[in-house]
Amino acid sequence: MGVVTFIAKRIALYFAVLFIGLSITFALPRFMPVNPIDGYIGELQSRASATIAPEGLAELRKSLEELYGLQGSVFEQYLAYMKRVVIDFDFGPSYTYFPHPVSSMLAEALPWTMGLLMTATVIAWCLGNTVGLVAGYFYKKRAASILEFVGILLYPIPYYILAISVLMIFAYIFPIFPLSATFPVGALTLDKAGTILFNSLLPGLALVLAGFGWNILSMKALAIATSEEPYVTFARLKGTTHRTRMIRYVFRNALLPQVTALALSLGVIFNGALLTEIIFSYPGIGLIMRQAASGGDYNVLYGAITVSIIAVATAGLLIDLAYPLLDPRIRHK
Amino acid sequence: MIELNDIVVSYRTERGSINAVDGVNLEIPDGCIVGIAGESGCGKSTLMRAIYGDILSPMSLSSGTIEYGFNDRNGEPVTSENVRNEWFRTLSYIPQSSMNSMNPVIRIREQFIDFPGTDPNKKRVLEQVREYIGKLGLPVEALDSFPHQLSGGMRQRMMIALATFFQPNLIIADEPTTALDVVVQKEILLLLMELQEQMGNTILIVSHDMGVHYQVTHKMLIMYAAKAAEYGDSDSVFDEPLHPYTKMLIGSLPTIGEDRARHGIPGSPPSLWGDLQGCRFAERCPLATGLCRSQEPPLVEHKPGHFAACHFAGADLPDTGGAGWQ
Ligand SMILES: Nc1ncnc2c1ncn2[C@@H]1O[C@H](COP(=O)(O)OP(=O)(O)O)[C@@H](O)[C@H]1O
Ligand SMILES: [Mg+2]
Prior knowledge:
Chain A is mainly alpha-helical. Chain A is built from 14 helices and no strands. In chain A, helix 1 runs antiparallel to helix 13 and helix 5 runs antiparallel to helix 6.
């Protein structure tokens, strides 16, 4: 299989995944037993003490259906939905912040979430793999098991406990960071950037600690297995240094599965966003999702789900496209 | 000349210690190809690792000394202590499986220059490598490939190029052709012989294939249960084997024109864990007597340069026409 075919196939798969994901987000609310418009009208009625005339109600319903794309047959709705989402990236207005469009809410929150979580995931990956590599390569040495101990200690701790502990320790017991951080919004100045960076350190630390342990343990296991490969033994018999063998022989080969793991964890960073942003009052997608969930703001929820589908699929695509650069056996097939 | 003075190589295991090489005494003259044969588990690889100086726990050189008879770059004699610094300088190693012995994710040329070698200027080394590969008649482009892009035979040729590039005094090859098909095997051996003739170095080559030994070697060492059973010039060993074990090994080779299947030697070697008394081959030897079972035969020079460890060295085996071994 040539590289071009490989890339073409992979990109086709990407679009197929996106298409299926978008179709599911379309279908999901339509299977729900409650109609959000009924709910909305009911709420209005109770507030207005049932004084809206039936004609007025029909009018209202019609305009709401138009607004939320619920007009016509399901098939027509589907086409209209796809057109809106794919071409205009438009998820309609937010219920709670009517008529603020969902897409601009997401666009404001996305850089926050991506910035924090991607940075933390990448740092956790780099640190974890470095520690895991050394622990695995020198697994016969006693000092290496101390390194591994860090992973064994951190890995099983549930994230919310880790996050709250970090907050307790560094904001309450040692009040280095604010307990409830504020993140300045609006145009970015150097001063604001400094505050944002400083206040992000705590959630960042919690995320790094959470992701770190797994990376240590899996890299260690991979490094041990790779150290036993005949090519590492032969490299030793050639007289290569530990450094060469650890990096060029063990790491380069053990890296491949870890890159896949990185792609997967980058794809699911939105899972981590919810808890992190609530605990550290961090203004990202997670916080918006929580508000939307408690306020029945469907458009915002589906918009956020769509964004996470796109993120997962894109992370997978990028890593798969980068993979041949790392593994010549795929590149030159 | 390489001298092995009564070397014992042991493995420490949970069940205790075993001697996988148990008192081997040899003198290997310079510039010859020595074949090492014997059943699986008799200690061939262990002996090779000990000579190469790759002595790592749980393996240890419990007694005896190895003298290499050549000097390192500083003119100091190479000994068991400093031999590791000489890897891929004055002695090198050809592994069994070229398939798995190369790093799959870096180019072959990188694998020629990622060890200390003799010249810190890697660019210059690479130039010399290209020249050398060309001189061997190998395609220079192979250097720019990744291992999986080459055939098994080409990979093993590159291995041989790698091992001979620094013109080492000693090359150790542990089953270098086992993983290859017969035609490629022959080409690889021819390359190795040709290089040896040009460089005049010593090659120790392990193979369980007596046919390979017959074609390639100048001297033969037959090992049995951690001991040297027979050692001598290949012509002499193949024409007039002295030890019954050697006779049976050679006898088990299929001969051209003979419609007889290759048959092994019945029985199995003694466990190295057990109480090893007398001749270790006695259990399987058609000539064994009470003497053999109680007294261990030393390795004795029966003819000039031809040694065997047998109380009845040179005696004929009862003629069974091979049928007895089936
Ligand atoms: N790492 C090890 N630990 C314990 N025993 C070993 C080890 N390696 C080899 N042995 C034992 O040493 C003996 C000789 O092995 P080896 O030198 O590999 O034989 P050969 O190469 O002739 O097949 C065998 O009995 C084997 O079981
Ligand atoms: Mg072996």
